Fold:
Amino acid sequence: MGAGKTTVGRCLARHLGKDFIDSDDEIQRRTGVSIPHIFEVEGEEGFRRREASVIHDLLQRNDIVLATGGGAVLGAESRVEMRRNGTVIYLKSSVHDLWQRTRHDRNRPLLQTADPRAKLQQLLEQREPLYSEVADLVVHTSKQGVQTLVQELMRKLAALSKPASLPPGA
Structure:
């Protein structure tokens, strides 16, 4: 949440000549209501069921860059599907950076608490091992601009697609 998935994903998709899809936007399109409304009516569990279903559907498509919500990794099935159907990129950020980017955003239901910064810390501690488990690439966002991040991702993606070479005699 606040790592830049949508912004970086949209730019990366342009560079790769692929369609960009944000799973949260797709959930809102399909339901006709906002994410906070879904949380209010169905709770986080209801939202996660919808999210897993949408991600499953979207992962059947080709030539897309998909930005998922930060909690998409909570579902074991979603993690397996993401790994099986694409290259997973973890945009890693510090709690401080995430807080700076989200502190004025009222459209994030999980941060509508008395201490949103502590909630970010808790979420990151819970999700970090899952992000690391599923990620093919990890990129630290810190203070880098979007273009710099996308160029780094393009280099890393190119390196992933190169066939591994064995040293002579191996």
In short: The chain has one domain: 5-158. The longest strand covers residues 19-22. Residues 35-58 form the longest helix (24 residues).
